[in-house]
Amino acid sequence: MALIRNRERRAIPSQAVKTLALSVPVSLVALCVATPSSPLAAETTDHAPETLPPGFVHLQTLDPTILTEVRYAGAHNFIGRPVPGYEAPEVVLTREAAEALAEVQADVRPMGYTLKVYDGYRPQRAVDEFVRWAADPDDDAMRAEFYPDVPKDRLFPERYIAERSGHSRGSTVDLTLVELPATPTAPWMPGDPLRPCTAPHGERWPDNSIDMGTGFDCFSEKSHHGSDAISEQARANREILLSAMERHGFEPYPEEWWHYTLADEPFPDTYFNFPIPASPE
Questions:
Q1: CA 4, CA 34: separation in Å to the nearest integer?
Q2: Catalytic one among 203, 256, 265, 281?
Q3: Average pLDDT score, the chain
Q4: Is residue 256 among the annotated active site residues?
Q5: Residue 140: Cβ-neighbour burial (10 angstroms; 0-12, 13-18, 19+)
């Protein structure tokens, strides 16, 4: 995957992002990364439904200090309902990705931050649900928050939606930084007012993330690395996360500040479809 490899450049200019975006797969706002000539999703069958296949771990069994907020296990996401395959609000990753993320956490905690992960491994069945959702023009209940400026009928033409996601390979993660000591995020309930993800930090949904310029899963150019439409503080905050992730082998997706993939991922050609089970007690 041709992503940003220049470790010397810390700020990513807008023009560079536009150029790089042409050389990488387009995603579903950190949801679906299209890969030409991809093999069919691999339905794993050599493990019990309540366990993980070899090579995968629950993130918090490896590092319980990392916060998680699995949006797709609930209704506070861009489709407005729990997503198939998320049988538990858990983050699952390949062991290699989880161990590298634990190293990132060790870097940022002395700086006064903790990682918070929104998503890791994503079953192919979840990606399929996103594709079905995108094809229904009447299913737009969450537009005011997650895609306030993009007509839904433009999601496929503008390639926000794709039929494959790098998350399904198990080494891609969506995450942010939270200042320590962490204040819990207020619970979101269906029917709560929707606030544009592009609004200023104090006007968006009160996620406990530091200001990254937009909310998570925001269908907007403001979400791109190098965007000049966000505040100087938000750009600096993105840089903290970018630097820490790159130091430990992750590569950013230029169009989504929250989306990173382990460069040396163990399953680069396999798209899994096992459901996400609860972690063992």
A1: 17
A2: 256
A3: 85
A4: yes
A5: middle
Before 252, cis peptide (omega within 30)? no
Q: Which amino acid is residue 9, in one-letter code?
A: R
* Structure confidence by residue, pLDDT tens digits, 209-267: 999 999 999 999 999 999 999 999 999 999 999 999 999 999 999 889 999 999 999 99
Distance CA 79, CA 152 (A): 12
| 155-190 pLDDT tens trace | 777 667 778 999 999 999 999 999 999 999 989 999
Question: Residue 276 has which token pair?
Answer: 């996400």
pLDDT tier at 30 (50, 70, 90 boundaries)? Answer: very low
Distance between CA atoms of 275 and 270, rounded to whole angstroms?
Answer: 15
**Non-local CB neighbours of 242 within 8 Å, separated by 6+ positions:** 10, 12, 225, 252
Average pLDDT over residues 20-31: 36
DSSP state of 106: H
Q: How many CB atoms lie within 10 A of CB 1?
A: 16
Question: E-assigned strands of the chain?
Answer: 41-42, 56-58, 67-68, 92-94, 113-119, 172-179, 250-253, 256-262, 271-272
Ramachandran angles phi, psi of 132, nearest 5°: -60, -45
Length of the chain, in residues: 281
Per DSSP bridges, beta strands 41-42 and 271-272 are parallel
